[in-house]
Design a protein that fits this description.
The chain is about 65% helix and about 0% strand. It has about 290 residues and is an all-alpha fold. A two-stranded antiparallel ribbon has the order 1-2. The longest helix has about 40 residues.
Length: about 290
C-alpha cells in the first residue's frame, strides 16, 4: 500500500515536472509536494491499517540522541569541505563566490563569504530545508525502513536506499535535476551517492530511535551541498552540474560521501524504534 501510494503520487508530480522540461528549481511548489509524497503515503497507510504513530518518534532523548543529531547535521559539511575543497584546489571545479550583496558582503574576501554562507545554511538554511526534507524522512526512515526490517527483507537498508535512489532518477535522466553533461552517468553516480546516504540516515535514525537526526542529515545536505558549495563553484547549480566532478552526482562528491558513509556505518549499531526502547538488534553495512 505504501509503495503503491508513493509511486502514484510521485508519478503525478514528476510527470508534471517532466512536461515542463525546465530545471526543478523553477517549480518549488511541485518539488515541495513531491518531497512530501512519502510522508503523505505513510499517513494514509497508517490510518488505513490502523498502525498508529508510536513507532515514528518525534522525541530526542539522551546523549545518544544528541550525538546522532550532531552526526547527521555535520556529515554534509565534512563531505562538502573535502570534496569541493579538492575540486577548487585542483581546478576540477572553479571557486567562484557569489556577490552576496543582500547580506552586505559584495566586496568581502572570498573565504569570508564562504564562511558566512556555511554558517547561514548550517543554521537557518537547515531549519528552512527541514520543512521539505521532513516529508521524505517521515516516509523513508519513519515508515518504510522500519517495515522492511520488521518484514525481515534481506539487507533492508540497502533496499531502502535503492528505492530512494530510483525515486529521483526520472528527473536526473531528463537533465532537470543533479545532471551533468552525461545524464545517464549522473543517474548512476547519484544512485550510488543516495544509497550510501541511506546508510547514514538509517544509522542516525535507528541508533537514536528518533526521526529528527535523519531530518537534520537530509536538510543539512540540501542546504549545504546545494545551497552553499554548489553556489560557490563555477557554473554550479542544484538543478544541473557544470561538470562531472561536483554536485550531488559529481565524481568527487560521490566518492567522498560514500567513503565517509562507510567509515560511519562499518561497525554495528543498535536499532531502536523510539529513544526509550532497548535495542532490539544491531545492524551494519556488512549485514544490512
Amino acid at each position: 500500500m505504501y509503495l503503491g501510494l508513493v509511486v502514484l503520487g510521485s508519478a503525478i508530480c514528476e510527470g508534471l515536472l517532466l512536461r515542463t522540461g525546465e530545471p526543478v528549481t523553477l517549480h518549488p511548489d511541485l518539488i515541495l509536494l513531491l518531497m512530501w509524497t512519502p510522508a503523505l503515503a505513510s499517513l494514509v497507510a497508517r490510518l488505513a491499517l490502523r498502525q498508529g504513530f508510536a513507532d515514528v518518534s518525534f522525541r530526542l532523548r539522551g546523549k545518544a540522541g544528541l550525538r546522532m543529531l550532531a552526526l547527521g547535521w555535520l556529515y554534509p559539511l565534512a563531505v562538502g569541505l573535502v570534496a569541493y575543497g579538492v575540486a577548487w584546489w585542483t581546478g576540477l571545479g572553479g571557486f567562484a563566490p557569489p556577490k552576496m550583496a543582500s547580506v552586505g558582503l559584495e566586496h568581502a574576501a572570498p573565504l569570508l563569504k564562504l564562511a558566512v554562507a556555511i554558517g547561514m545554511n548550517l543554521t537557518l538554511g537547515t531549519i528552512l530545508s527541514a520543512m521539505s526534507a521532513a516529508g521524505e524522512e517521515l516516509g523513508w526512515r519513519g515508515y518504510m525502513l522500519t517495515r522492511l526490517i520488521d518484514a525481515e527483507v534481506p539487507r533492508p537498508i540497502l533496499v531502502s536506499g535503492l528505492i530512494w535512489a530510483a525515486w529521483h532518477l526520472p528527473l536526473i535522466v531528463s537533465g532537470q535535476y543533479a545532471a551533468g553533461p552525461r545524464p545517464a552517468l549522473s543517474a548512476i553516480l547519484f544512485a550510488v551517492n543516495v544509497t550510501g546516504g541511506a546508510y547514514v540516515a538509517a544509522r542516525v535514525r535507528l541508533e537514536s530511535g528518533s526521526i529528527w537526526p535523519s531530518v537534520a542529515y537530509h536538510a543539512s545536505w540540501n542546504a549545504l551541498i546545494q545551497g552553499t558549495f554548489d553556489r560557490f563553484t563555477q557554473g554550479g547549480d542544484s538543478a544541473r552540474n557544470a561538470t562531472t566532478w561536483t554536485g550531488e552526482s559529481g565524481v568527487l562528491v560521490v566518492g567522498v560521501a560514500v567513503l565517509f558513509a562507510l567509515l560511519l556505518v562499518i561497525r554495528p549499531w543498535p536499532v531502536r524504534r523510539s529513544p526509550a526502547d532497548e535495542p532490539t538488534r544491531t545492524v551494519s553495512v556488512k549485514t544490512d
